[in-house]
TrEMBL record:
This is DegV family protein. It comes from Thermophilibacter provencensis. GO terms for molecular function: lipid binding. SUPFAM superfamilies: DAK1/DegV-like. Signal peptide: none annotated. NCBIfam families: DegV. Keywords: Lipid-binding. The keyword Cell inner membrane does not apply. PANTHER family: DEGV DOMAIN-CONTAINING PROTEIN DR_1986-RELATED, FATTY ACID-BINDING PROTEIN TM_1468. The lineage of its organism: Bacteria, Bacillati, Actinomycetota, Coriobacteriia, Coriobacteriales. The keyword Nucleotide-binding does not apply. PROSITE patterns: DEGV.
Length: 294
């Protein structure tokens, strides 16, 4: 049995059952709907359909990062059992939660001098963060120790590729990520912006593609270009989606056709509330292992 626990946040956008099965511990982000605090708890409080319906009806939605106090409580339950902790946070380019986790680690260090909390900024988001956790769980299960695992994560986290598009720009406009004028033109021209996560962990618009069908084609092309081994890619592929399952299934079908050596079927997960508050419905995100992001 390892002498440490592997941990992440609910923003890894997998499922509670998936995390439990991989023995990955987790804690919840929070978000607010019309001033009421809710847990980003894999859709238990508000299913994705309920969340987006409320947002489209005009509910004010805001995200709230995990506090240092919440991190302290999470870490201490394991430190008090004599276990170390390897915790990966949501990308610092999206959230300040990495700083909160580091503050909690530092405050606990004096109380537990013989045990360690290793905090790693994943520089990843949604199920790309989940894909990284999947690899780390495998390395842990193969016998890798806590310090070595944290170092491996630091060295290789930039190899998780994130490519996503949205067919509904409503909440990108509302959140200020796309101007109203650009959003109006984009809607009229059926523009689906193709985005990725930059090396610093922030979101970046890479291409403006006309029509969803072409956006799907382009995601598969980017995977051929960037995946480890090209068309011979033999790793895993995760997809997350916000109330557009048919679009995600079409991307998955195309990927499985194009990459015959893929490790299993493409796994599709719902985008959780923290990310979904910013994307709204209509976003499909594809994640795989490949070249270091540049």
């Amino acid at each position: 049995m390892p002498s440490y626990v592997l941990s992440c946040c609910s923003t890894a956008d997998v499922t509670r059952e998936w995390l439990d099965d991989r023995d990955i511990k987790y804690l919840y982000f929070n978000y607010y709907l019309n001033g009421e605090m809710c847990k980003d708890d894999f859709g238990a409080t508000n299913s994705p359909a309920e969340l987006y319906a409320k947002m489209l009806a005009g509910a004010e939605a805001k995200t709230s990062q995990i506090s240092a106090g919440d991190y302290m409580a999470h870490f201490e339950q394991y430190l008090s059992q004599g276990l170390d902790v390897v915790h990966l946070t949501l990308s610092s380019g999206i959230s300040g939660t990495y700083n909160s986790a580091c503050a909690a680690r530092d405050q606990l260090a004096e109380k537990y001098p013989d045990h360690h909390v290793y905090v790693v900024d994943s520089l990843a988001a949604s199920s790309g963060y989940g894909l990284l956790m999947d690899r780390l769980a495998g390395l842990r299960d193969s016998g890798m120790g806590a310090a070595e695992l944290a170092a491996w994560a630091e060295e290789h986290k930039g190899e998780v590729q994130h490519w996503f598009f949205s067919s509904d720009l409503t909440f990108f406009i509302r959140g200020g990520r796309i101007s109203k004028a650009a959003g109006l033109v984009g809607g009229m021209l059926k523009i689906c912006p193709l985005m990725d996560v930059a090396p610093d962990g922030s979101l970046a618009v890479k291409e403006k593609i006309r029509t969803k069908a072409k956006a799907i084609n382009r995601v598969v092309e980017k995977m051929v270009e960037l995946a480890e081994g090209g068309r011979d890619y033999s790793g895993k592929c995760f997809i997350s989606q916000s109330e557009c399952l048919a679009d995600a299934q079409e991307v998955a079908r195309r990927i499985e056709e194009t990459f015959p050596r893929l490790d299993g079927r493409v796994e599709i997960f719902p985008i959780g509330a923290t990310i979904g508050v910013h994307t709204g419905p209509g976003t499909v995100a594809t994640f795989f292992w490949g070249q270091r992001r540049a």
